[in-house]
Amino acid sequence: MKKIWKRVALAALIFLVAGGICLCVSLYLGGSLNRLYQNAAVQPLLEQLSSEHILDLLSALLGQ
Amino acid sequence: MNRQQFLVELNQYLTFFTPEEKAKIIAAYGARFDENGQDSEAALLAELGTPMMVAIDLKRRKEAGERIPAAGDGGGGTDDLAEGIAEAESEDALPQPDEAEQPETVPSETVVTAGESPSAGEEKPSFGADLVLSIIGSTLLSILIAAFFLVIAAAGAGFLVAMSYLFLTGLKTLLYPADALLLFSGGLVSLAVGIVVLWLAAWSAISLIAKLFRAACGKRIRTAGKECGV
After folding, report:
1. How far, in Å, are A43, A53, B4, B167 from residue A11 at the CA level?
2. A37 and A20 both lie in a single domain
3. Which of B25, B98, B191, B209 is close enough to B142 for a disulfide, judged by CB 3.0 to 4.6 Å?
4. Residues of B in contact with A51 (CB under 8 A)
5. Looking at CA atoms only, how far is residue A35 from chain B in angstroms?
6. What is the pLDDT of residue B103?
7. Nearest residue to B219 via CA among B140, B152, B158, B138
8. Is this prediction's ipTM beyond 0.90?
9. Residues A38 and A23 in one domain
10. What is the CA radius of gyration of chain A?
11. Cβ atoms within 10 A of the Cβ of B54, count?
């Protein structure tokens, strides 16, 4: 169990560091959330991941 | 095993007794060995069984209150305990021949035997029922625990789904590297969070359910062992 914990923690750390590097590079290249929202290709994804959509999904799952 | 080894081992197993009681018990067994002599030492060892079994039996007797009243009677308790052990081995529960002590020991023993026989009769059949009940309770509780952690695991899985969406969209928007990297970073963070949450849910559920069943079954088995004098 401890070994698996170590591996999971290590993998998560690596992914977080990689994510942080990607974010830094993106910001360095001039990327921002406002610019991302203006990208038409990303619109469907942003809608999917919006809080309203997630809440709708949850309420549909819970049968409300 | 010889007499010395028996007494040394017995001393190690008498963890439930005070040092004074321990010393008295060891002295009592030493006296028994002396009485029997060296020739019948092997026979006595065979009769007594292993030191662990003797210690368990003594502990059971102490818990049942059989020997403790005799041992706790002040200074006179020394001989009482020693004799009591000797008596216990020969399955005789007769009180001291002393006239002054007789009224004290006789009622205590009668109370013990009176309280013991019905409980011994009641506990044995209830053991199986107890075990079944505790297993049913553990199963119901495990279902609740599993349901709770399943919800948490679903949240973790949600993060992984979000990660896959973010990666796919990132690949679609490779023409805009800044946006793609932003999406990749979100995907990587989602992946890290998803993995941790999923593993945390799985580990917590498994360890909690395992502990629950171990506690339920282990306790019953230990109780059964005590009842059987093993």
Report:
1. 30, 30, 58, 17
2. no
3. B209
4. none
5. 8
6. 43
7. B138
8. no
9. no
10. 17
11. 21
Distance of CA B140 to the CA centre of its chain: 23
Residues A40 and A23 in one domain: no
Provide the token pair at B9.
């081992």
Residues from chain B that touch A48, judged by Cβ atoms under 8 A, are 165
Smallest CA-to-CA distance from B180 within A28, A22, A38 is with A22
CA dist B100 to B76, B80, B96, B208, Å?
11, 13, 9, 57
Integer Cα distance of B187 and A51 in angstroms: 17
Contact B49, B95 (CB under 8 A): no
Number of domains within chain A: 2
Amino acid making up residue B85? I
Whether residues A7 and A17 fall in one domain: yes
Nearest to A39 among B165, B179, B189 (CB): B179
| Residues A64 and A42 both lie in one domain | yes
Domain shared by A4 and A24, yes or no: yes
CB contact under 8 A, A31 and B179: yes
d(C-alpha A23, C-alpha B72), whole Å: 75
Structural domain spans, chain B: 3-94, 125-228
- Number of Cβ within 10 Å of residue B36's Cβ equals 16
Distance separating alpha carbons of residues B101 and B111, to the nearest angstrom: 16
